[in-house]
Specification:
alpha/beta, binds acetylphosphate, magnesium ion binding, binds adenosine-5'-diphosphate, globular, binds magnesium ion, 15 helices, Ac/propionate_kinase, Nucleotidyltransferase, domain 5, 374 residues
Length: 374
């Protein structure tokens, strides 16, 4: 069996797969880690619960695959975790203080529980390693950027690689050009050509780009200094932009279902939040059109992308001039990976449910095979 662990800041998700064929055997989620009254004080306790639910401590495991959000400049492919790699992963933490510590906590506990089993790190940033320098580079003092590792990395790469592969199968065009919209709690847009990243909306950290559930996405950096001069500390501003911005900051709800419900009932704040969210998305799609020159496919994934026919309709409604024609019936249907544009649409619009854990299992299995079977 292959166990995949996605250890996030407030939840640990896991899936267990059969080693041959990667059939899913089990899936689970431990939530509200560290919240008062949740009974799960920390990641140690969450992993103990995963162990209990999966039989991880004694089970017949081929490998454990871990989601790691930030691979830094060093890791552009999945890697077997030994002491040296674990130390290098710890060194990346300053680049991703809000994401990597939880990933590392999961790795640490799993390695301690199963030192006999290969453990593999699979990075959100890896898919974007092909991003050209012009897209990767912030226009700031070059020497400073080099010294402090300030550049764009991009995230959601595991999800993007997975759904884009499925999408290229649907349009039967391996060298297709397209735009992948991963709209979950975090949200990102990625311009892709074949299996290469052309540009992506998240940057040095997963804060840049689209409007998200609780994250602002793009703001003028001067806003931050304005708020600091107004008396907020850097940590307070960071925490606000990460946890109390986005849909939540605009209207008090971070769940798109609640936002839409309130907007339908005439609530002005929820309506504006919805409009800001969709406006930003449309802007990125237009920008990526310009970068790609031609778009064969647009793919929606993540909780919002997969489930909200309304968001898909709103976002694409202004794009008729670019040859995008949504089929209202197909768009409203709800079943698995599918095309939702009309037959005569110049761009094939698709909905593809993501499966980051399956992609991590595949990468983990392939790396373990390459390493130990020769
Ligand atoms: N039917 C739906 N309509 C609109 N939004 C939905 C629907 N179902 C789920 N969502 C949104 O998906 C979000 C979660 O996305 P998901 O990709 O599952 O999260 P995560 O990033 O934690 O994996 C929720 O916050 C919710 O806003
Ligand atoms: C990198 C990132 O934003 O991940 P998530 O969407 O899981 O928060
Ligand atoms: Mg997600």
């Amino acid at each position: 069996m292959i166990l995949v662990i996605n250890s996030g800041s407030s939840s640990v998700k896991y899936k267990l797969f059969d080693t041959d064929g990667l059939t899913r055997l089990q899936a689970g989620k431990i939530e509200r880690i560290g919240e008062p009254g949740s009974g799960v004080p920390d990641h140690e306790a969450a992993l103990a619960q995963v162990a209990e639910e999966t039989g991880m401590e004694t089970g017949d495991l081929t490998a454990v695959g871990h989601r790691v959000v930030h691979g830094g400049p060093l890791f552009t492919e999945p890697v077997l975790i030994d002491d040296e790699v674990f130390k290098q992963l710890c060194d990346i933490t300053p680049l991703a203080p809000l994401h990597n510590p939880a990933n590392l906590a999961g790795i640490e506990v799993a390695r301690r529980m199963r030192p006999d089993v290969p453990q593999v790190a699979v990075f959100d940033t890896a898919f974007h390693a092909t991003m050209p320098a012009a897209a990767r580079t912030y226009a700031i003092d070059a020497a400073l950027a080099e010294r402090y590792g300030v550049r764009r990395y991009g995230f959601h790469g595991t999800s993007t690689a997975y759904v884009w592969r499925v999408a290229r199968g649907l349009i039967r065009r391996p060298d297709a050009k397209g735009i992948v919209l991963h709209l979950g709690n975090g949200a990102s847009a990625t311009a892709v050509h074949g299996d290469r990243c052309v540009d992506t909306s998240m940057g040095m950290t997963p804060l840049e780009g689209l409007v998200m559930g609780t994250r602002s996405g793009d703001v003028d950096p001067a806003v931050i200094f304005h708020l600091i001069r107004a008396g907020m500390s850097p940590d307070e501003v960071e925490s606000m932009l990460e946890h109390r911005a986005g849909l939540l900051g605009l209207c008090g709800d971070n769940d798109m279902r609640a936002v839409v419900e309130r907007a339908h009932a005439g609530d002005a704040e929820a309506t504006l939040a919805y409009e800001v969210y969709c406006h930003r998305l449309r802007k990125y799609i237009g920008a990526y059109y310009a970068l790609l020159g031609r778009v064969d496919g647009i793919v929606f994934t993540g909780g919002v992308g997969e489930n909200s026919a309304l968001v898909r309709r709103t976002v694409l409604s202004g794009l008729g001039a670019l040859g995008v024609r949504l089929d209202p019936l197909r768009n409203a249907a709800a079943d698995g990976a599918r095309v939702v544009s009309t037959e005569d649409s110049a761009v094939t619009v698709m909905v593809v449910p993501t499966d980051e854990e399956l992609e991590i299992a595949q990468e983990t299995s392939a790396l373990v095979e390459r390493t130990f079977s020769g």
